[in-house]
């Protein structure tokens, strides 16, 4: 079905037309996955709620702005993709899916997240990039198993100090925000492995030598006057990244043990 035809059919509210967008979706898929991405959907198909063993649900690139309460029946869902839709608030039905491990919310119109999101205590990966966030929602700091946070392309100017509670966090992507300073809280998170602050407004970087878990720091496209100092073996992407991360030894000195 072509995209133009789908777009026309999507405006017709009859069940027949909506079923046309869904295709062959009569029984629970054997692989426990339903992919309805790019179908021009304007309402969530209630039929999917009967697939109670569903593990993966992809609803990316549609025209959804709400979800029905019946969605809470999908208690085995582990991956939910709602990116590239029209959500201005996160439907509370999502917060009832306590087995979720990966949640895609990027490219919507979210300016906050509900406190009920803290019920998702199995969540390990959260994508909230390209929304309307001017501050990181406090509830994110209560997702104790979170390992990967994608929060780029928002309007973030700083990060809450409570973020340091997320001791499982390994990767944080903050590209394309409005950070004028390197977020101080990140200096108290030695377990971080990847820090991306590309495309911000950071003019000076603090010493990152003490971040023992750090493997990669991306700081390109900032008006910085210095490169962050990092431990040996840590990769840097940005201005002066080709320089040695360690101070050069004075010539004529012989390293101990040689």
From TrEMBL:
Write down the superkingdom of origin: Eukaryota
Gene encoding the protein? LRRC10
Name by which UniProt lists this protein: Leucine rich repeat containing 10
- Name any GO cellular component annotation: cytoskeleton
- Which GO molecular function annotations are given, in alphabetical order? actin binding; alpha-actinin binding
Organism name:
Sphenodon punctatus (Tuatara)
The UniProt keyword set, sorted, is: Leucine-rich repeat, Repeat
* Keyword Repeat in record: yes
Question: What's a BP term from Gene Ontology annotated to this protein?
Answer: cardiac muscle cell development
Q: Which SMART domains match?
A: LRR_BAC, LRR_TYP
Q: Matching SUPFAM superfamilies, A to Z?
A: L domain-like
Q: Which PANTHER family does the protein's record reference?
A: LEUCINE RICH REPEAT CONTAINING 10 (PTHR48051:SF37), PTHR48051
- What InterPro entries has UniProt attached to this entry? Leu-rich_rpt (IPR001611), Leu-rich_rpt_typical-subtyp (IPR003591), LRR_dom_sf (IPR032675), LRR_domain-containing (IPR050216)
Region: Disordered, residue numbers: 236-258
The Basic and acidic residues compositionally biased stretches are 239-258
